[in-house]
Amino acid sequence: MTAMAQPNGRRPKRLSAGRIGLYAFLVISALFFLTPLYVMLVTSLKPMSEIRTGNILALPAAPSLAAWNSAWSSACTGLQCNGIRVGFLNSIRILVPSVMASIMVGAVTGYALSFWRPRGAQLLFATLMVMAFIPYQVFIYPLVRMFSQAGIANSLLGIVVVHTIFGLPTMTLLFRNHFVALPIELFKAARVDGAGFWRIFIQIMLPMAVPIIVVAIILQVTGIWNDFILGLVFAGRENLPMTVQLNNIVNTTQGERTYNVDMAATLLTALVPLAVYFLSGRWFVRGIAAGAVKG
Amino acid sequence: MSTVSLRGVEIAFGTFKVLDWLDLEIAQSEFLVLLGPSGCGKSTLLAAIAGLLEIDQGEIWIGGRNVTWEEPKDRGIAMVFQSYALYPRMSVRRNLSFGLQVAGMKRDEIDRRVTKAATMLQIGELLDRKPAELSGGQRQRVAIGRALVRDASVFLFDEPLSNLDAQLRAELRTEIKRLHGSLGATMIFVTHDQIEALTLADRIAVMKDRRIQQLGTPQEIYLKPANRFVATFVGSPAMSFVSGRIGEHGNFEASGWQLPLADYAFAAPPVRGATVDLGIRPEHVVLAPSDPHALPARVELVEPMGSDLLAWTRIGEAAISIRLPAETQVVAGDTLPLLFPPHRLNLFDAQGQRL
Q1: Which secondary structure element, helix H or strand E, spans residue B260, and what is its range?
Q2: Hey, which residues 163-202 in chain A have their CB within 8 Å of chain B?
Q3: What is the pTM of this model?
Q4: A69 assigned to some structural domain
Q5: Average confidence score pLDDT of chain A
Q6: Which residues pair with residue B13 across a beta bridge?
Q7: Other CB atoms closer than 10 Å to residue A237's CB: what's the count?
Q8: Alpha carbon distance B271, B248 (integer Å)
Q9: For chain B, which domains are there?
């Protein structure tokens, strides 16, 4: 037995023509989808004079953050010229309580519903899911009427309530599907140990739902941050979110269009959801998987 | 160390009755096993005793106190579940102490109890691990530990060994029996495994179809089953049955069968000509080569079991299994002369009730 085991047959090719074609296609697609972002980025770094004369794909001759500065602190939204930072702060003030409220209410409702297993539960919850896709526009007028009756129209509270309501179907189902997969004996054991509904929920069930909470945060943060119409209708003049402010900046009709400022303002508005996706990608996948496969 | 008594307990899910007018008295320090096939209501009954399920009729008393409407934590019970039901995000130590913390017990008393339980169950070195880092047997030990720290007077076990492999099951079974001896607590143990029931119980309640079919010591259940269901459910390999009738002279008659029943302890005098089923356990059949009354049985199959040997035989139409010493020389095709001692026989009427 002196001979070593020899590889048999032709050495497999590392790079076939098909592979090269595939990668070429992927690279081109990626470039295609990245082009708008590239254009926005370079335009925001150019002065107006260069934009007027130059090629939109050209790199800036002398990159400057002047447009970013202006977009952040001095661009005009209608009559006020305080930049988009006002909208940024408003969006934060809407975002934080809305995300927290919708997740907390959704988690509790989903937990409670996980015990309720009537006949035809699947159909019922499927219906709830479909309801989540009904266009917002249908609800806007009745809600405006109800909110003005209740005295919370055009207020921070109003917009937070609206976001919480519209977040509920998705949040409830997300948590319900997670909790329904847990063994009911866990709940029984905790009851024998003397824990009540809230203690069981907070000390035992919620810690097991961490991946789902992360998913919920991602969904809600991006959804609420990107919202335009609800903010416009329910937040009131003082609390207009960043998206609405951005629209006001970009659509200012007087004078020259300051493309560099518009681009900078748009990028600033997109930063939060972008950051959420980049930071949470791993968690997001893990959360989805954890929700799909039990245990 | 409490008595448990169930008085006229009924439970229904909607219109479907799960338990029907059930009375059961469990003595102090008794080990009672609820044995039955799945769906017989045994786990439901246990959940009702624990207070995890409301009953529709009747009363539950524990330790001389009517606890029918009390919360599980106030009943003086502890419970061990089939799926262990350990809190996954908590360490073993926290799993054990959770209930005590909820009850507002002092730190040092909690530590004392946790240490004591951990020592009894030999899980001391696992205290800082998470349940996911434990084997199945270790998890069930922790689950038993969680019951121990409660210092309960009644322990409820809901099929605690069903998820374990055979070897661990036997090991934990003896451990539970030892715990029962040293704690002196009342234990109620639900299982569908007749070996667990026979080995652990002081008394067994065999359940089927919402009712207790028979309540008795393992001996009574095994040797004097109250009906055909109990006779078939308990014992492995199962009891053999022969369908026949009571003859003119009070003998048992079937094709190829003629057995005198003069020494059988009838509960009521038998009716001549009545249809009956005769049951006999494999180890009660006697091999009697020189006895003129022996019935000839044709051997169809032989299964050596190591410790002994099972022979599947036929007398007339009836299939009879018999247990023989391991060294018996017998092969398929042989004819064996068999005797059926009357005091080992079980006779059931057409409704399946013991005669």
Answers
A1: none
A2: 183, 185-186, 188-195, 199
A3: 0.82
A4: no
A5: 86
A6: B16
A7: 7
A8: 10
A9: 4-233 (3.40.50.300), 240-348 (2.40.50.140)
Count of CB atoms situated within 10 Å of the CB of B328: 15
ipTM above 0.90, yes or no: no
For residue A208, the chain B residues in CB contact (below 8 A) are 88-89
pLDDT band at A284 (very low <50, low <70, confident <90, very high): low
Q: In what order do the strands lie in the sheet with B295-304?
A: B286-287, B335-339, B295-304, B308-315, B318-325
Domain around A216:
85-292
Length of chain B: 355
d(CA A224, CA A100): 12
- Residue B229 corresponds to which tokens in the numbers above? 């269901």
Kindly report the number of other CB atoms within 10 A of residue B42's CB atom: 27
> Residue B144, CB half-sphere, CA atoms under 13 Å: how many?
29
CB nearest A188 (choices: B52, B99, B102): B52
Q: Is residue A4 part of a domain?
A: no
Alpha-carbon distance values, A108 to A79, A101, A118, A220, A284 (Å): 44, 11, 19, 16, 21
Number of domains in chain A: 2
pLDDT digits (tens, 9 = 90+) for A173-196: 999 989 998 888 999 999 999 999
A122 to chain B, closest Cα gap in Å: 20
How far is it, in rounded angstroms, from Cα B62 to Cα B75? 7
